[in-house]
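Exercise 7. Given the encoded structure of a 228-residue chain, write a plausible sequence.
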């Protein structure tokens, strides 16, 4: 059996991203999203998702560029330790804020630029996730990151998505995506591409193929109900 989580990153980043994620869920194959708790439209995003209980909501963990640089590089031990401790505190803070905004813990955790998988911080996040029975992106579930491209829109076309679906392995997979509708508050180098992704995720051809192939669309909270 093939199970697919279609997770839309960046909930809260702008009104258009929020609206695109919801449209992708209502009219397409999006089953899950991840919230940027500090983003300017975070509260609006949460309000929208509460109208759609089948749309899973997780945490899109973020850190600053300075911390990211330290955790990605070979630096002196004292600086690395200080940065690790600061990042742990930031993670705890964002989980707390997520709970305050949504009224619950995240149903999964992923990271901006996949920072949750950085070796210096991953053990702490993984321990928290296991203690609270929260799945982590790319941690036991087949992670599909290829539906993303800054320059070539063919990679995020409906035809490209159809190929991904046809090649989907048995078991549970997660497809990362970034749908949005254009609004004047969307400041992103990945802007036009988000609209292309939305069209692909809501394509009639894609929706019909999911049915034809018998792919079961699920969110992260439904993993425990899956029998492989």
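Solution.
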């Amino acid at each position: 059996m093939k199970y697919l989580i279609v997770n839309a990153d960046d909930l809260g980043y702008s009104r258009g991203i929020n609206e695109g994620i919801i449209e992708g869920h209502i009219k397409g194959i999006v089953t899950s999203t991840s919230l940027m708790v500090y983003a300017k439209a975070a509260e609006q995003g949460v309000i929208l998702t509460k109208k759609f209980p089948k749309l899973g909501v997780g945490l899109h963990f973020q850190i600053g560029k300075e911390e990211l640089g330290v955790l990605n590089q070979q630096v002196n031990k004292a600086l690395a330790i200080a940065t690790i401790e600061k990042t742990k505190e930031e993670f705890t803070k964002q989980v707390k804020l997520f709970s305050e905004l949504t009224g619950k813990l995240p149903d999964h955790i992923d990271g901006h630029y996949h920072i949750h998988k950085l070796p210096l911080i991953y053990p702490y996040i993984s321990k928290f996730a296991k203690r609270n029975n929260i799945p982590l992106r790319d941690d036991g579930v087949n992670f599909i990151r290829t539906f993303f491209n800054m320059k070539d829109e063919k990679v995020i076309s409906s035809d490209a998505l159809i190929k991904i679906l046809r090649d989907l392995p048995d078991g549970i997979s997660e497809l990362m995506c970034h749908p949005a509708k254009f609004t004047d508050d969307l400041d992103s180098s990945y802007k036009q591409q988000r609209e292309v992704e939305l069209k692909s995720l809501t394509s009639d051809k894609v929706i019909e193929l999911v049915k034809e192939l018998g792919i079961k669309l699920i969110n992260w909270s439904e993993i425990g109900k899956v029998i492989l």
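Remark. Helices lie at 15-27, 42-49, 65-72, 77-102, 122-131, 158-166, 192-201, 204-213. Students should compare their own answers with the one above.
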